[in-house]
Amino acid sequence: MKVAFLGLGAIGAPMARHLAPEYTLSVWNRTAARATEFAKESKATAASSPADAVRGASIAITCLPTSREVESLLDGDGGMLDAFDRGATLVDCTSGDPATSRRIAARLAEKGVGFVDAPVSGGVAGAMKGTLTIMCGGDEATMARARPVLEAFGEKIVLCGPIGAGHAVKAVNQAMLGVHIWALSEGLVALQKAGVSPATALDVINSSSGRSNTSMNLFPERVLNRAFPRTFRLALMDKDVRIAADFAREYGVASPLLQLASELLREARRELGEDADHVETVQVLEKWAGVTLGGKQ
Ligand code: NDP
Fold first, then answer.
1. Ligand 1: which of 6, 11, 181 to mutate, most ligand atoms within 8 Å of CB?
2. Secondary structure of the chain in the HEC alphabet?
3. What does the pLDDT read at residue 270?
4. Which atom of ligand 1 is nearest to the CA of 124?
5. Of residues 156, 170, 193, 239, which has the active-site annotation?
6. Could you read off the pLDDT of 99-110 as tens digits, one per residue?
7. 120 lines ligand 1 (CB under 6 A)
8. What sign does the dihedral 99-101-103-105 (CA atoms) show?
9. How many Å lie between the centroid of ligand 1 and the Cα of residue 143?
10. Which of 60, 104, 228, 248 is positioned for an S-S bond with 255, CB 3.0–4.6 A?
11. What's the CA-to-centroid distance between 129 and ligand 1, angstroms?
12. CB-ligand 1 contact for 11 (6 Å cutoff)
């Protein structure tokens, strides 16, 4: 069975690597050298265009920054839309937005092609281990076709609702992550100014009710040791939290915290740039307060 994978970025590449041993894998990437390199290292073929990648594939997977880029691959010279076989399925692992996905799905449906939105959680480490959580939107029959392929890199795979539901759940998850990073940054900076070491504070918080993945893993492993590995760009988290804020507004839900989190992360992105990692957000709070967590005051 042929599977196509489009978008060999920080998380896309380790996801695609799990498919190579099981399927006839065709990969495409905007920067062609990445696809050629991937094909050399794994049992895969580098496609010359999105159309070339998806032609003859039963399942095509996209993992791009936003839904806008996924939509842009449908049309034009080498676009996917006219190359799909009837009965094929596009599985979009991008952390995208529900409205654009519904539009993409409608256009694919006219060609007899199914669609599932299937954003992932678990980071680059989870992608490498093949233990991602995958939250999906679509109908049961299309999901049944996608699931065995998703099992190559996913451990917990949940159909959350109709098309767009996976993106919506992912956006809310990301909003929680953004809020945790921002709130913990403010709190630890204030505690350090008050003379409490962040390591001591985290030791207490992590056996108390305020703990989170951010306090238990991200800050001890990336902030206090000043390692700041670049695994997930702040620009992408900003995009995700904006999707959550817009989504809540679209449904008329009062969401002051989501709106504020979105504004703050946009400001952090402006200050730190497009390549900064999401955890580097703490550096904005440190700069404002004139302290370095774990460092000298
Ligand atoms: P990266 O920025 O590392 O990679 C982006 C990929 O998209 C690259 O393959 C890039 O190609 C391609 N791309 C960018 N712009 C275009 C375009 N206009 N047309 C075609 N291809 C394009 O992102 P990640 O891999 O980190 O993230 C991908 C998705 O997964 C995002 O939606 C993100 O929010 C989500 N995600 C990421 C996680 C992570 O830990 N990194 C965790 C969970 C979800 P090129 O090589 O040419 O730049």
1. 11
2. CEEEEECCCCCHHHHHHCCCCCCEEEEECCCHHHHHHHHHHCCEEECCCHHHHHCCCCEEEECCCCHHHHHHCCCCCCCCCCCCCCCCEEEECCCCCHHHHHHHHHHHHHCCCEEEECCEECHHHHHHHCCEEEEEECCHHHHHHHHHHHCCCEEEEEEEECCCHHHHHHHHHHHHHHHHHHHHHHHHHHHHHCCCCHHHHHHHHCCCCCCCHHHHHHHHHHHCCCCCCCCCEHHHHHHHHHHHHHHHHHCCCCCHHHHHHHHHHHHHHHHHCCCCEHHHHHHHHHHHHCCCCCCCC
3. 98
4. 40
5. 170
6. 999 999 999 999
7. yes
8. negative
9. 23
10. 248
11. 19
12. yes
* Ligand 1 contact, 83 CB (< 6 A): no
Domain boundaries, the chain: 2-162, 168-289
Q: Kindly tell me if the per-residue pLDDT of 93 is higher than 80.
A: yes
Architecture of domain 2-162: 3-Layer(aba) Sandwich (3.40)
Output the pLDDT for position 295. Answer: 56
Check if 224 has its Cβ closer than 6 Å to any atom of ligand 1.
Answer: no
Q: For the residues 187-208, what does the mean pLDDT come to? A: 97
Query: Which residue lies with its CA nearest to atom 35 of ligand 1?
Result: 95
Class of domain 168-289: mainly alpha
pLDDT tens digits for 36-73? 999 999 999 999 999 999 999 999 999 999 999 999 99
pLDDT in tens, 201-244: 999 999 999 999 999 999 999 999 999 999 999 999 999 999 99
Share of the chain above pLDDT 90, in %: 99
Q: Is 31 in the pocket of ligand 1 (CB under 6 A)?
A: yes
65 in contact with ligand 1, CB cutoff 6 A: yes
